[in-house]
C-alpha cells in the first residue's frame, strides 16, 4: 500500500468510525423534522392513564395485576369522547424483574389502545411521590389522599447508587428498542418532572433533595443518549414544569437539558388559562411542536373549558391528568396530603373525567371534549 493509499485508507477509517459513533449516539431532530412530524398528527388530545384498579405504575404492569379487560373498557371511554393519545408511566424495576414478560404486557396494552384508535406516549422515569418503590403487592390507598401510592422511577436509593446505572441503560434501550418503529407509540417522555423533590410527604431535607437533583442533572443527558442509540422513529421529550423557560440565564441544568435535547417540547401547567397561554408563548420561540402533557386541576383553575380551548386555538396538544376515578384517588386535591378528605368530600373533583362505570363526572366536559376533537 502506498503512502497516498494509506492516508486515504486512514481517513476513510476515521470517517467510518465517526459515522458509526454518530449513528450509535443519534442526533436530536431538526426543527424541520419535528414540525413535519407534528403536521402529520391529528390534534393530540388525551389523558394521563392509570387504570382504576391500579394505585401506581407497578400495579398497572406487574404480571399479577395487569388487567387487559379493564384497560379495554376504560380506553373505550376515552375513545368515546374523541381522545386519541394516552400518556402512560412505566417503572424501571419492571424491566429488571422480567424484561420479556414486561415487553409482552406492553405489546398487549398497545394492541388494546390501537383497537380504540389511541396512541401511547410512554414515560420511562419519574421524580414524583414515593421515593423507595418495591416490586410485589402494593399497599392500599391511604383514605382521602391524592395519589397516595404513586412511585418514583428510579427510587432514590437506586438513583444514587452508581452501580445501578447499567440497569437504567438496559431498561431505556431495551424498552425503546422493542417498540422503536411501532406506529402505536406516539413518542417517548424520558423523565417526568425531573426536578421535582417528590411531593406530598415524600419531600426530603434540602441536602437530600440537592443530591437527587445533582444526580438527575448528570444522568438525564445520558438517558437521552441511550434513547437515541435505540434509533426510535418516534420523538423524544422530557417536559418542563416550573421556572423560567424564556431566559436561559434562569434555567437550571435539568431544564437546559430538557429544552436542548427534546425533539418536541412538552410542558405541564395547572394554572388558569391565561397562565397556560403565557407558558405556551414562552416556548414558541423554540420553533418546535408543543404538547402540554399535564393540565386540568379544577380547584386550581385549570379546566377543560379554559385550557383545552386555549390549546386548540394555539395548536398545542393537550393531555390532562386522569381519565377514570380509581385507586390513585386523584379526585382529591394536592392538599389532601396535609388534610385527608376522610370526614368530607372536596366540593369538586380535582382531576379525572369518568366514574368507574363510564359516566362522565361532568357531562358538559365530556361533550366539550367530543365537540373540540371532532372539528
Summarize the structure in words:
With 375 residues, the chain is an alpha/beta fold. The protein has a single domain (43-374), classed as TIM Barrel, CATH 3.20.20. The protein is built from 13 helices and 8 strands. Helix 9 packs parallel to helix 10 (253-261). The protein is globular and about 50 Å long.
Q: Summarize this, please?
A:
It is built from 13 helices and 8 strands. It is an alpha/beta fold.
Secondary-structure blueprint:
Elements: H1 3-25, H2 31-39, E1 45-48, H3 57-61, H4 68-80, E2 85-89, H5 92-97, H6 99-115, E3 119-126, H7 156-160, H8 165-178, E4 185-192, H9 206-229, E5 236-237, H10 253-261, E6 265-268, H11 273-283, E7 290-294, H12 304-314, E8 317-321, H13 363-374
Parallel strand pairs: 1-2, 1-8, 2-3, 3-4, 4-5, 6-7, 7-8
Helix pairs in contact: 4-6, 8-9, 9-10, 11-12, 12-13
Rg of Cα set: 21 Å
Helix content: 40-55%
**CATH second-level architecture:** Alpha-Beta Barrel
Fold-level CATH name: TIM Barrel
Overall structural class, as computed from helix and strand content, comes to: alpha/beta
Order of strands, main sheet, comes to: 5-4-3-2-1-8-7-6
Helix count equals 13
Q: Give the total of beta strands.
A: 8
Under the CATH scheme, which class?
Answer: Alpha Beta
Order of helices and strands: HHEHHEHHEHHEHEHEHEHEH
Mean pLDDT: 93
Can you identify the CATH superfamily? Glycosidases
Report strand %: 5-15%
Q: How many strands, what sense, and barrel or not for the largest sheet?
A: 8 strands, parallel
Q: Indicate how many domains the architecture comprises.
A: 1
- The unreliable regions are 1-25
Amino acid at each position: 500500500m502506498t503512502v497516498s493509499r494509506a492516508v486515504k485508507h486512514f481517513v476513510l477509517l476515521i470517517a467510518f468510525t465517526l459515522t458509526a459513533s454518530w449513528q450509535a449516539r443519534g442526533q436530536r431532530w431538526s426543527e424541520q423534522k419535528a414540525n413535519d412530524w407534528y403536521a402529520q398528527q391529528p390534534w393530540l388530545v388525551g389523558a394521563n392513564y392509570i387504570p382504576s384498579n391500579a394505585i401506581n405504575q407497578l400495579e398497572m404492569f406487574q404480571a399479577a395485576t395487569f388487567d387487559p379487560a379493564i384497560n379495554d373498557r376504560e380506553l373505550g371511554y376515552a375513545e368515546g369522547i374523541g381522545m386519541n393519545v394516552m400518556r402512560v408511566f412505566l417503572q424501571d424495576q419492571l424491566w429488571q424483574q422480567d424484561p420479556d414478560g414486561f415487553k409482552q404486557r406492553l405489546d398487549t396494552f398497545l394492541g388494546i389502545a390501537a383497537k380504540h384508535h389511541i396512541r401511547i406516549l410512554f414515560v420511562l422515569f419519574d421524580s414524583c411521590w414515593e421515593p423507595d418503590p418495591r416490586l410485589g403487592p402494593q399497599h392500599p390507598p391511604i383514605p382521602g389522599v391524592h395519589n397516595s401510592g404513586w412511585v418514583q422511577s428510579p427510587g432514590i436509593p437506586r438513583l444514587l447508587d452508581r452501580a445501578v446505572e447499567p440497569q437504567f441503560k438496559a431498561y431505556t434501550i431495551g424498552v425503546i428498542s422493542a417498540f422503536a418503529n411501532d406506529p402505536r407509540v406516539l413518542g417517548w417522555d424520558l423523565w417526568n418532572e425531573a426536578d421535582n423533590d417528590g411531593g406530598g410527604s415524600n419531600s426530603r431535607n434540602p441536602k437530600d433533595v440537592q443530591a437527587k437533583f445533582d444526580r438527575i442533572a448528570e444522568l438525564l443527558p445520558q438517558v437521552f443518549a441511550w434513547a437515541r442509540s435505540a434509533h426510535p422513529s418516534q420523538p423524544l421529550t422530557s417536559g418542563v414544569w416550573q421556572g423560567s423557560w424564556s431566559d436561559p440565564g434562569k434555567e437550571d441544568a435539568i431544564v437546559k437539558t430538557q429544552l436542548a435535547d427534546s425533539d418536541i417540547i412538552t410542558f405541564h401547567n395547572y394554572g388558569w388559562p391565561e397562565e397556560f397561554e403565557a407558558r405556551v408563548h414562552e416556548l414558541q420561540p423554540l420553533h418546535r411542536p408543543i404538547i402540554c402533557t399535564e393540565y386540568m386541576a379544577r380547584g386550581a383553575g385549570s379546566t377543560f373549558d379554559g385550557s383545552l380551548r386555549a390549546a386548540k386555538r394555539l395548536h398545542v396538544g393537550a393531555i390532562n391528568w386522569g381519565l377514570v376515578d380509581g385507586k390513585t384517588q386523584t379526585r382529591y386535591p394536592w392538599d389532601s396530603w396535609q388534610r385527608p378528605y376522610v370526614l368530607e368530600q372536596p366540593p369538586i373533583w380535582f382531576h379525572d373525567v369518568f366514574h368507574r362505570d363510564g359516566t362522565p363526572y361532568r357531562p358538559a366536559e365530556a361533550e366539550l371534549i367530543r365537540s373540540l376533537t371532532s372539528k
